[in-house]
Amino acid sequence: MSVPVIQITDMSKYYGRARGIEHVDLEIGEGEIFGFIGPNGAGKSTTIRLLLNLIFPTSGCARIFGMDAIRETKKIKQFVGYIPSDATAYPSMEVAEFLKYCLRFYHVPHHEKRLTRLSELFELDLNRRIAELSMGNRKKVSIVQSLLHNPKLLIVDEPTTGLDPLMQAKFYELLRQENQNGMTVFFSSHILSEVQMLCRRVAIIKEGKIVRVEDIETLRKKQLKKVQIEFAEPVNKENFNIPGIESTISSLNHILVFMYSGDINELVNMLTTKEIINLMIEEPSLEEIFMHYYT
Question: Minimum mean pLDDT among 28-32, 45-49, 256-260, 286-290: which range?
Fold first, then answer.
């Protein structure tokens, strides 16, 4: 059995009495684009900083490529790229100067060719000073810098913040290409549409704890259905008590929308006693599933 690229075991982090994460267990295999989703403050960035040895755990441990994230961090960083949520760099440097400086930390053959290709892809002006760049252009510098050394693992934290839609599309396509070439991606985001578009598996983190790790298709197809019913008469959702209703999405006069995990046949049989104008049963979006787990 191959060693997981990322393996987190019973890891917790507290900032004094404040919770960062609690008892997190997570494994990510080679070649995955793995989604990590949750709102601000859920523990996504704390988990990433622990993996990168930027902060230390209160308890538990993490391994990357089978190596201890603390004791072997210098060796690990040779194989890892990181795109932070806040793109920062030395403001007095020109873009080319900064990128070449970063390359000195790695032993990368043909680095000039890769630097040129990535800079052209993201339309970077290599002669501009970092201080002169907009937030979006600083984010593009961060993306290029993270990929210059052909990392085996790319860790991204809210990577598309500040990017316009065209650059977002280029970034997504680049991730797919790099993944096809063997790169594993740990993709942390609260933008669920991009997670759904890129990732095959996803972990949902809530208040510092992992509440679900699942294939996205399994989450969508096997667990929950989104049901919308239009009745002939106004409906009171409080009186509409059917086993299997997980959570109500909306209730407005004649229309009731809810998440359903029961037997569809039982639902249809119970509805035969009602006068129905329209019935729609469909797969929920990842965003709707996410909100379900948070309620």
Answer: 286-290
What the block records as the tokens of 287 is: 């965003």
Report pLDDT digits (tens) over 96-113.
999 988 888 887 766 788
> What gap in Å lies between CA 233 and CA 150, rounded to an integer?
61
Q: Indicate whether 20 and 67 sit together in one domain.
A: yes
For the ranges 26-35, 63-72, 88-97, 148-157, the lowest mean pLDDT is seen at: 88-97
Residues 283 and 245 reside in one and the same domain: yes
Q: What are phi and psi of 95, to 5 degrees?
A: -55, -50
Residues whose CB falls within 8 Å of the CB of residue 285, separated by 6 or more in sequence, listed in order = 192, 196, 220
How many domains is the chain partitioned into structurally?
Answer: 2
- Sheet containing 225-231: order of strands: 245-252, 255-260, 225-231, 276-282
Give the helix ranges, DSSP H, for 129-258.
Answer: 135-147, 165-180, 192-198, 216-218
Best CA proximity match to 119, nearest among 101, 145, 85, 92: 145
